[in-house]
Design goal:
By secondary structure, the chain is an alpha+beta fold. The chain contains two helices and two strands. It has a domain of 36 residues.
């Protein structure tokens, strides 16, 4: 097996090689992904793709539970022995 390497990118499930790559139609190739630099846009997208997929039903259920658990803010003076704050004076 020849160890020549050519550069390309994945687009829509197809590997697109750089223009001028000397491969003929039907040539069998072995594709090895190149690791993206940490923090690069490609690395971030790759990390996001590896996350487990959350079904929309789970999101709907979570939003419903959050809404059901909402409470009004506490009124001022909850602790009667507490002196008023003077931070803004």
């Amino acid at each position: 097996m020849t160890q020549t390497a050519y550069h390309g990118v994945m687009r829509g499930g197809v590997v697109l090689l750089d223009p001028g790559t000397p491969l003929t139609e039907g040539t069998e190739v072995l594709v090895t992904p190149v690791s993206a630099a940490r923090g690069s846009p490609a690395a971030i997208l790759a990390a996001l793709e590896k996350l487990p997929k959350v079904p929309p039903e789970w999101v709907d259920e979570l939003e419903h539970l959050i809404a059901a658990g909402r409470r009004p803010p506490s009124p001022p003076g909850v602790f009667p022995d507490e002196s008023p704050s003077r931070e803004n004076d």
